[in-house]
Amino acid sequence: MSITHTPIVETETPPDVVRKARPWSRSTHVPERLRDKVLYLDKLTVSFDGFKALNALTLDVEPGELRCIIGPNGAGKTTMMDVITGKTRPDAGNAWFGSTVDLLRLRESEVARAGIGRKFQKPSVFERLTVFENLELALQADRRARAAVAARLNLDQRERIDAVLRRIHLAGEAQRLAGLLSHGQKQWLEIGMLLMQDPQLLLLDEPVAGMTDEETERTAELFRSLQGAHSLVVVEHDMKFIEALTADDPGKKVTVLHEGSVLAEGSLAAVQANEKVVEVYLGR
Q1: Which of 111, 219, 252, 257 has CB atoms 3.0–4.6 Å from 75's, for a disulfide?
Q2: What residues are paired with 48 via a beta bridge?
Q3: pLDDT in tens, 188-217
Q4: SS3 annotation, 120-131
């Protein structure tokens, strides 16, 4: 299937700006029927100079779920992640992590400590350090381990790093400088750095952009291995990658965003057959 994208300019949150929450009537608790969700977004609205980046967006994610998010540029995918992680404050709506954590009351650093890890499209690793040292630094970001790491890694911590190295396909590259890794390997390393902090929810923004076909396939294997132990929200344009992520479960849910709200949601086959999705995103 040939993929075409509607020519809409992606509107991202202005850099280094956290919008002040405007006063509105907000829920003080998660509805009973949604208390088992790991993430619950309720009627989120964000406007930039009159443009609605999010328009009453409502979405929920199950514990251990791997959710794929697709949609044209400008659909609100980046802004959604910005709201979840505390970078952007919405004009209206609610965002809950589990049944008790009100994300709209937290700063970015507090959201990360609460158990949400975010990976941006461009990998960000310490290129002059080894792969092992990058993971060791990420372990230091975990306050539970920081004091011990500052002194000396114990056996449990070394085993934890070794386990992550194996999972991200870099066990044989532990002593290699991160700057010498391929683009795909750097992406895996950054994912490994997130895993060192043991997040409950991972937000992954176009994680296979620029990867080779082999790296893309191995990344799909990695993400499928993480589901269950972690919840994953994957924003991606590569439909072959989406197919690989859903290959183990044809009923796995895919959400399509358009103009700041949910256009369609269901299995990959269902959204691919949806006439509105074909019109605004997939093309004929």
Answers
A1: 257
A2: 51
A3: 999 999 999 999 999 999 999 889 999 999
A4: CCCCCCCCCCEH
The tokens describing 282, both together, are: 């997939």
- What is the DSSP secondary-structure string of 227-245? BTTBEEEEE---HHHHHHH
- The class (CATH top level) of 1-125+200-284 is alpha beta
For 33, residues 6+ apart whose C-beta sits below 8 A from its C-beta are: none
Residue 134 DSSP label? H
Which of these, 219, 197, 54, 201, lies nearest to 123 by C-alpha position?
219
Q: What strand order describes the sheet that includes 92-97?
A: 51-61, 39-48, 92-97, 101-102
97 vs 172: CA distance, rounded Å = 36
Question: What is the mean predicted confidence (pLDDT) over 167-182?
Answer: 96
CA separation for the pair 114, 94 (Å, rounded):
17
Q: Indicate the domain borders of the chain.
A: 1-125+200-284, 127-180
What is the pTM for the complete model shown? 0.84
Q: Angle 8-9-14 (CA atoms, 0-180°, nearest 5)?
A: 145
169 three-class SS: coil
Helix ranges (H only) for 57-171 are 77-84, 108-114, 131-140, 143-151, 155-167
Angle CA 63–69–75, to nearest 5: 135
Strands, E assignment, the chain:
39-48, 51-61, 66-70, 92-97, 101-102, 116-119, 201-205, 231-235, 254-258, 261-266
